[in-house]
Amino acid sequence: MTDTAAPWPRGDALAADLRRALGLVDPVPEAWRDAATDAFAWAAVDAAPARLEYDSRGLRGRRAHDQGLPGTEVREVRYVAGDVALALELDVGADKLRLLGRIEPPGRVVVVLAWPEGRWDGESDDDGTFRVDELPRRPFCVVVDGARPVKSGWVVP
Amino acid sequence: MELTSVADLVTRARAGDQGAWDDLVGRYLGMVHAICRGWRLGVDDAADVNQVVWLRLVEHLDRIRTPAAVGGWIAATTRNECLRVVRASGRVVLTGEDGDLDLIDGRDAGIDAGLLVYERDRALLAAFDRLGDRCQRLLRLMASDPPPSYDEIAAALDMPVGSIGPTRGRCLEQLRRLLD
Predict the structure, then answer these.
(1) Nearest-angstrom CA–CA distance, B74 and B69
(2) What chain B residue is nearest to A6 in terms of C-alpha separation?
């Protein structure tokens, strides 16, 4: 048993005691390291990264939206890479989100949504639109696998 | 770790080197954890912030102007994400409300309560918990392994580099007084 009656040190010695005690009681969870390591997978996706051009989050005067899920927030995001644009409209609920996407130029292309724990594979229609009604409320990115593959950045709902 | 080697890690990670990325994670994960804990986020919220920080970093790796300063970027991004979560949720999970360290909200993440039998550690952590938020954030950040640079601490806490040392001294002195 540690001698609790011993005088407490000062300065750097006290900081060292604190570092050791915090390390014992509050270590970095191993799952954090896994999440951080796995994040690098985005870099390996063979597609041009698109630039975030617009994000309505935090903007005042959001437009009225009568199609949104009850109690949800509607958010619009737009990414651009060269002549390819990707517009996303999110209905963000407590645990889920609904996503409506539109690709320009329009046309049928393979679309992949990826989040840390899973993915959704689909295709846009002739108008370049795609829709996913139930996604987990998790950070996600979109890969548009057209003639020139493009990947969005991470959207955090 | 020297700044030049951090810059080298960033350069190699930009080129797709997973090993360099893993080394960056090893260098800064403790700092990210300390910042999150300093904001007293719940276990799930803190894990989400950690994930978002690394997702943001891999996305922005090519755009960080000064690779050697990536630690400051990570620190500032972590702080901003913590603030975003706090503002969005409108709640802050308090730890050790009555000085009982068994209540610390990281308990579910694997804290071994048996370690707390050491009364001296228990007393030290109880005193630490009575410090103000700013002192707790600073001392916790400086206790992370490996310790961040002053520039990184300044970015994490939004405070001038020149005030870190004196503030640390005052916080340690407050902690010492609480232990008497």
Answers:
(1) 9
(2) B120
